[in-house]
Structure formats: structure tokens, C-alpha cells
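Question (not urgent): is this output format expected?
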Amino acid sequence: MQKMYAGARLRTLREQRGLSQSGMAKVLGLSVSYVNQLENDQRPLTVQVLLRLNATFDLDMGFFAADTDARLLADLQDVFADDPDAYSVTNAELDDLMTRVPGAARLLVSLHRRLRGATEQLEQFSAGIEGSTVEPGTAMPYEDVRDFFYDRRNHIPELDHAAEHLFTQNRLSIGGLDLQLTRLLHERHDITVTIRSDNPTDPGPKRVYDPQARRITLARRLSPGQRAFQLATQLAFLTHAGTIDTLTASVETMPAGSRELLRIGLANYFAGALILPYTRFRDAAEALHYDIDLLSSMFEVGFETVCHRLSTLQRPNQRGVPFFFVRTDRAGNISKRQSATAFHFSRVGGSCPLWVVHEAFTTPGRIRTQIAEMPDGRKYLWLARTTDESTPGYLSPKRDFAIGLGCDLAYAEKLVYSHGLPIHDETTAVPIGAGCKICERPDCAQRAFPQLGRAIRVDQNRAANIPYTPADREGGPRTP
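Got this back:
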């Protein structure tokens, strides 16, 4: 077994639990000097100590694994990829920074996000775009909200428990939840629910709440599951506004515009947790081997809703498979991205064209699977399928998306989608990357951009088989 030095992670765990070194030593039954040596990487973590840590603090299986920090390392790669003068900083140096001073690494990522936001604002002003609401030095609001959930591994325990309690307290049941929530709103909050017929030329919003008239109006085009989600979202604002405000206020550096958007995101999280209550949904997912179609039928919700909920199942002692959830359009723009894993796609240079999510558009409505390998050797099982958000009518605008759901290959056998796949054959994995601009694969024929900071070979006497041949492969003129 390779020796594991994880002093920074152990120190972070101790500080998160509010323990001194002597307190940690007492809890684990170790000497203070031994804990001190572990934290300073003077001694490796042994299997016995790992087992004690996992049992005492209910850690997930990857807490001390090297790939646990993959998302932070990928964020650092994005930071340095944006600066052409930083090409000399190696991944090994970034890994050393992340391991030894993770707090400084996270601060660097945060500062970079603010710089990117300020740069985007400056570009808007330079282009003469009026009415920009981006505050100086901040990221875009949707990026702020995405980072909030991303940093929490897409699990908000306060809202998960509150939603499950409301479900149980009011004796709700799976099936016909839109009607049950309509009755609950009327009986407990004196709010009526009406259905609005859609205008073919202007479908209108999905939900409108009139606080003076105490009336919620829903669009007729919504399915029963979608109506239940909208009513559950309104219930979140009515019954758990305090919890939502507390969570929002916990991010002191977030600007006002982003905070309002975060409140909606948290209410939506509550809604998903209410119509798919944690214990019932997680147990059903395990029993059905994470068959999304069967779960959709059982809980009367759509494919995307089930996939999004699967990416949130990280409650201590009741964890599900840690998934990465993503939604993309035909052009490859990622509009939703949530993760309970270390998987990460770059914010620069787009997503990998070899990724199965892009292939889903060639077979609408059919689930595609892929065993994919990242440049660092980590392997994932991915599944993808198209979905659409359309309004009735032949001439109505259509919105097509591909939904992707992935997990570490170590969990593949728990999923029905691994059936018939060569998950133990290392030669069948498709080599993908985090994004062309930071991908380290020199032989990829699908590369759309050269790797940032890496010189390419320019030779008028040679026609290479791959685009952007690295200069250090065969020598020749170097063009940074």
C-alpha cells in the first residue's frame, strides 16, 4: 500500500469539528505527539487510523483520497490557465499549494472569480452595453449561486431535513402531490391555487403568486409533477424563509443581486427535497439500482428532476452514490452544473467534445452511456439523455437540452446502467478532458484550442495528423 500523507486534510477536519490537537488525540485514542506528526506530514496515515477517523466522524470514503481535492486543483488550473505568464507553474506545484495551504488556494480561487467578474463588467462597458447590474469585482450572479452549491457538494442539510419533516408532519404521500399541496396551502395558509390557460403567442410564467389576493396561478401546460414543484417552491418561501435567509446571510461576500437569486435557488432545493423526500427517495434509488425511468414513474416527476435530486444524496449515514449533474444545450453551453463528486469541467475553453453528453442529441430520448477517463487516470461512468422544455403547439419554441449524470467508476456496479458494460476493462475507457484550453492530452484529434501556456510547433514543411502539435514533442519553432 502506498503511504498516504494527508496532514492538511486532517488539520482541516480537526478545525471544522472545533477540536484542538489534544482533543483530536483523545477522541481517536492517540497521543498528542502522534497527531502533531500526522498533521505535519512527518508520519503517514495508517489503515487503523483511517478506520478510526471514518468511524468517529462519519466521513465519506474519499475524504482522505488524493482525488478528493480534484475540484480545488481544477479551479487552480483555471486560475493559472487564464494568465499566459503562468505556464511555468506545474500541476505538481499547484497540488503542493493545495495540499499544504488549502485556505490560501481557496482564497486565490475566490479572488480570481472576482477578477473575472470585474473583467466581464469592463468588457460590457467597453462594448457600450447599458444597464449592466454586475457589481464591481464580482462574478455573475448565476456563477455565484452555482459556486455556493458547488462548494457545499450540492447538499443543504437544513433544507433537506425541513422538507422531509414537512412531508411527514402533514402526512403527505407519493402520488398526486400537486393536489395534496393545493389542499395544504388552502387549509394552512389560506391560499388558493388556480390554473391559467396559456396564450399560444405568449405562454407566460410557470407560477405567479399574488400576496394580496393570496392566490397562486399556475400555467396549464405544466405536468402534475411540475405543478407540485412550483407549489413546493412557494411553500419554501412561506414556511422556511428564516432558514433561507440564514443560509443566504452566511455568504458575507456575496453581492445583493446574487443573494436574491440564491434565495430562489434555495427555495427550489427545498421543493425538490419535498416532492422527493430524502429517505424515501434514497431507499427507492438503491432498491431500483438508480434506474431513472423507474424513479420518474414512481415519484411522478421528470427525468431532469430525478437526476438533479440524485446529485444531492449526501446525508451522513444515508449517503447515496455521489453524482455529478449537468445540463447542456446543442452548442455545448452548460446551463446547470451540480456536483457531489470531485469531477470538474473547466470554466474556460468549453467542455470536451468526446463527452457522451454531446452525443445524446443524436438519439433524442434515448439514454447513452460512456466509460470515460480523465487525464489524471480517474474513471467515470456517464449516462446522458435529451429532454425538452416546450410549450404546446406546432409553432411553439422548443428548448432542447441534454442531461448528463456521472459517478466514479467505483460505484458503477450499483447502477443498472453498468449492465453489459466492460467496466473492468481498462482499455475501453474514452479519454476525455476538462476542456481543451487546459487539457493535457497532446494526441487528441478533437482538440479545438491549444493548451494555454504550452508552445505549439509551427512547420510549413509538415502537415500533422493532430491540430496544435506541442513544440516539445519533436522540436522545431516554438510559438507561445
